Amino acid sequence: MDQPDANPSYCPAPAAPAEPVAGPPYADCLECGKPTEYGVETPGAVLCPVCEWQEAQRTACSG
Known about the structure:
By secondary structure, the protein is of the alpha+beta class. 17% of the residues lie in helices and 13% in strands.
């Protein structure tokens, strides 16, 4: 019979972010429209540092 993990993780591990593409030109933030630190060819949703921080706060494990 399998034993449960000694240190169970209640929050799933975050997915590895896509490798950012260097700019310029820089992509616009999807939330506020300000320039980001990522090039326009970066895959996925790109956010500026402020919106990234706010998104991390919203999705953080509150447990």
